[in-house]
Amino acid sequence: MPTLRPLDLTTFAQSLLRAGGASEEEASITARSLVDANLKGYDSHGVMRLPYYVQAIKDGEVASGAELTILDEGPSRVVADANWGFGQVQAARLIKKLAAKAHAEGQAIGTMTHCGHIGRLGEYCEMTAAEGLVSMFMVNSHGAAVRVAPPGGKAPRLSTNPLAIGAPNGDEPLILDFSTSATAEGKVRVKKIAGEKVPEGWLLDSEGKPTTDPNTLYATPCGSILPMGGNQAYKGFGLGLMIEIFCGAISGGVTARPVPYPKKGNCVFMMFIDPARFGGAEHFRAEVAQLVDYVRSCPRIDGVSEITLPGDPERRLCAKRMADGITLDGENWNALVKLAGQLGVETPRV
Fold it and tell me: Is the model's pLDDT at 349 over the cut of 90?
């Protein structure tokens, strides 16, 4: 399996995106975001997405050069249309506007429709935590890519509808980032491309029976991803249902429906809070720090060396992969090499 230095992989990703039709700005922002996802262990949101992003440009599902249109706004809100622009680019633009409003007013809420895939939500929580803001991000798939069946059902009705919440905590912000399904769809796709089985508890086939074959999710009729929650899957599905409403209905966008929306992308909901304008910045810092210390001091069961909090695994893996490089499985790497050949891009040495 090839291992690449993060800088080399970023340069390669930028070249592929530029050759595929992205502008210099779009290629730079998107490539950095994808490689950052690989560094943090979210390979499902990393460079394996490149063939799909390039195909989306070709198919007109993503538009290079798209502006972020502000449909309406107030002192602490923004309603935007991304015009099918690159998700990472449009998300950064909306975050910049909302962060300024949150600092000025204490809080800000923004929505965005017609947006390309915005990638790993935790990345944006990290960005806003660095500005001292508490944040929450949600997305749906414009109701187009339903993958998750309700408990007791055997046909998908929702997308994986991820949620991310971030809180500043010095150099170790708390970043909670997960799909409301048993796994992200991208992780199933990674296994499919690699020709590997998925773990038990991820998938059901089209008859609602457990399976470890990733191909069943993409078959006709298709299988589905289980909701998060195991024996209490109604919790994960219920949370995903509410995210569908926050993203698709509140924004003026689209929710899941019998006839899917013709384009796959994201409807987005963002909320920022400036603790300085509520209980006070110093109070917030002190309370979060003592809470973290208190939780980490919990007596541990045998074999557990430390208490892990949201954001810890990503920081540790990032440090390791920055030092050792990012390893890709053979089939996903071959997909990138094939794309490079089609676009006339030089493949880096591994």
Answer: no
Average pLDDT of the chain? 96
pLDDT at 193: 87
Q: What is the model's pLDDT at position 156?
A: 96
Helix%, strand%, coil% for the chain, nearest 5: 45, 15, 40
Q: For the whole model, what pTM was predicted?
A: 0.94
Q: Which domains does the chain have, with CATH numbers?
A: 1-59+312-350 (1.10.1530.10), 70-181+227-297 (3.30.1370.60)
For residue 190, the model assigns a pLDDT of: 87
Q: Could you read off the pLDDT of 219-245 as tens digits, one per residue?
A: 999 999 999 999 999 999 999 999 999
> Residue 175's closest CA among 185, 166, 162?
166
